[in-house]
Fold this sequence. Notes:
Helix content is 27%, strand content 28%. It is an alpha/beta fold. The protein has a three-stranded parallel beta sheet with strand order 2-1-7, sandwiched between helices. The radius of gyration is 16 Å and the shape is elongated. The mean pLDDT is 94.
Amino acid sequence: MNLIIVESPAKARTIKNFLGKDYEVIASKGHIRDLPKSRFGIKVGEDNSLTPEYSVAKENAPTVKKIRDLAKKADTIYIATDEDR
């Protein structure tokens, strides 16, 4: 099975119509992780490097779980993100 992850549920349905049964298409329903709202979200290293600390919002947890479950079964994973990030 091949897994394709897109952002939009409508896009997922359209793409699924073009592909065969060897493909599973799932929508992330937008951005599933972001910098946390409750803290700064950037870790400053000893060498002054900056590392983002992303978090998954509670409302996105079920979608993330479904994507992870499908990803475990997939032979190949395609991430088809929108160009806005």
